[in-house]
Amino acid sequence: MNKTVAKSVLSNKYWILESNGQKIGTIQAIDAGGFSLVKDQERKRYASITALGSENNIIFDRKNNKKSTSTLNLISDYPVAGKAYNIIWNVRKKFAAYTKNKNSKCHYCAGYFAIKFQNEWQVMFCPKLIMVNRYETLGPFKTRTEAEKAMPGGS
């Protein structure tokens, strides 16, 4: 099955659609509201990006929106974006979790994880702890490349 991936060009405004490395279309935010999909010389309007993605089986590539590794901190050699507070160690699953501020109760997992979400494996950077507990996961990994290689079908 071919995956259609939307790669962000302008954050939340413009994406390029690719399938097997070939450009096949674009998505553009409309000033009046909604989104426009241009594919196969046809233009179709959608009320939300979620509706557009689910109707056309599109995966949105979020790695272009993440901070570069030069601005990352580490917890037990695993990267985290920003400062980490309230660090805990999950002994059973062998990963660190943290909050993004002192008073938060929402924990995030340090590193990269491969998560099977809606029957598709996706690499996520510092996912919420609830995602790691709720879905089938592989990780943690120190780099995105390691996580991609560990996914079923990864190279």
What does this molecule look like?
It is a single chain. The protein has about 160 residues and is mostly beta strands. It has two domains: about 5-65, no CATH class; about 65-150, no CATH class. The chain contains three helices and 14 strands. The chain has helices at about 50-55, 130-135, 145-150; strands at about 5-10, 15-20, 20-30, 35-40, 40-45, 60, 70-75, 80, 85-90, 95-100, 110, 110-115, 120-125, 135-140. It has a six-stranded mixed sheet, covered by helices on one side. Mean pLDDT is about 85; it is low at about 65-70.
Features:
6-stranded mixed β-sheet, single chain, 3-stranded antiparallel β-sheet, mainly beta, elongated, 14 strands
Q: How are strands sequenced across the largest beta sheet? A: 5-4-3-2-1-6
Alpha-beta classification: mainly beta
Question: What is the radius of gyration computed over CA atoms, rounded to a whole number of angstroms?
Answer: 17 Å
Mean pLDDT: 85
What is the string of helix and strand elements?
EEEEEHEEEEEEEEHEH
- Termini Cα gap: 16 Å
Tally of domains: 2
Provide the helix percentage. Answer: 10-25%
Uncertain runs are 65-71
